[in-house]
Amino acid sequence: MSGVTSINLVENALLVSIQDDVTDTEIVELQDTLSHRIAKNNVRGVVLDISSLEIVDTFVGRVIAQLAGISRLLAAETYVVGMRPAVAVTLVELGMYLPETRTALSLTHALSQLRRG
């Protein structure tokens, strides 16, 4: 998956890095892989790192929402980290508020929130 750099276990969370050039096929693979890793590792959270995204569109917004939905159904909280101000503005302008996700300033902050559980 070239659009997803990695899925790494950090403490009790899976860190997923999403690249700018992610494709539909890679997203389907990511959803499958992520759901299996959540179940296998019994993680408390998923941290989606979108710091490499310069811009977003409805596709990327939908991807984030779908990954958060899958995680929630498998009892893992989702945090989005690395969001640029322009990305936040664009998501709001597109009407994508992502109610199932939480945001954190960094991986450290997301892990701190998950520890507090």
UniProtKB/TrEMBL annotation:
Protein name: RsbT antagonist protein RsbS
Origin: domain of life: Bacteria
Listed PANTHER family: RSBT ANTAGONIST PROTEIN RSBS (PTHR33745:SF1), RSBT ANTAGONIST PROTEIN RSBS-RELATED (PTHR33745)
Domain (STAS): residue spans on this chain: 3-114
PROSITE patterns associated with the record: STAS (PS50801)
Lineage, opening ranks: Bacteria, Pseudomonadati, Pseudomonadota, Alphaproteobacteria, Rhodobacterales
InterPro entries in the record: Bact_StressResp_Reg, STAS_dom, STAS_dom_sf
